[in-house]
Design a protein that fits this description.
Elements (H helix, E strand, L loop, with lengths): L1 H24 L8 H23 L7 H16 L2 H13 L2 H18 L6 H16 L18 H6 L14 H22 L5 H21 L8 H18 L28
Helix pairs in contact: 1-2, 1-3, 1-4, 1-8, 5-8, 8-9, 9-10
Amino acid sequence: MLLLLLGWTFLFAVSWLTGIAILGKIAANNFNRPADRWLPAVWLGLCFLSSLLLAASLLTPLTPLVALSLALLVVVFSLGLKRTRRELKTVAKTLSVKLLVSLFVLSAVCAVYVNQAVEFYDTGLYHFGAIRWLSDYGAVPGLALLHHRFGYASSWFALSAPFNAGWLEGRMTTVANGFVLFLVVLHVVVCLHRCLTRRGKLADWFILFSSPILLILAVYIGNWQASASPNLPVAALAIVTVWTLLIVSNPDAADTENNSPGYGAMIPSDESPVSL
């Protein structure tokens, strides 16, 4: 459980910093509530980091040293942006002991639940094998000749590969999907708190209705959370994408503090009409 918590802390920190940098670069100023900005930032950073690792696998095995080096480069670049540093200072001011304890308790509960035997069939069939190949050798041309399922190149396997080295081999198979489970549960808790305090918006109610369905499918039907299957992040991202569209299309959610021109104009908002 402690290993999972450490892995999730690493993923959260690197993904958040990366996502904030990306949001700053595209001038996405449509998120005025803190959680509405932090959660998409984590998802953006997670997707970027996994894609970066998959690209690196073409050149080198995905060892922990390689992953740490890439993460360090990404973090240094992100912190080099003034907007990221400003966002980091804002987050530091909003942190409290109560919030940190709540996050720890929630993550610990998720870690205890995810720390179970992996019974998902496909993980034993080829997920773990693909992760081990990436960890030991990187992307190997012609690997699908051994088994056709090894031809499925997934960035989600690349994200898990650095956690499957040395004495950690086989102990952190659920680290990536467990982290997704934590993000989904955290999102539900945030939206539930808003709705109970009569601050909920359409996007919050959407999460309260859609995410429990995802959790039922993941836990009781597929047991995705205790596996290395890309099914869980793909399903979660589908919900997050719709939620993001609801956020940026809500006139009350527009952030008018920084209306600098940029790629943010590509994102629909009340001030940027979309024409087909």
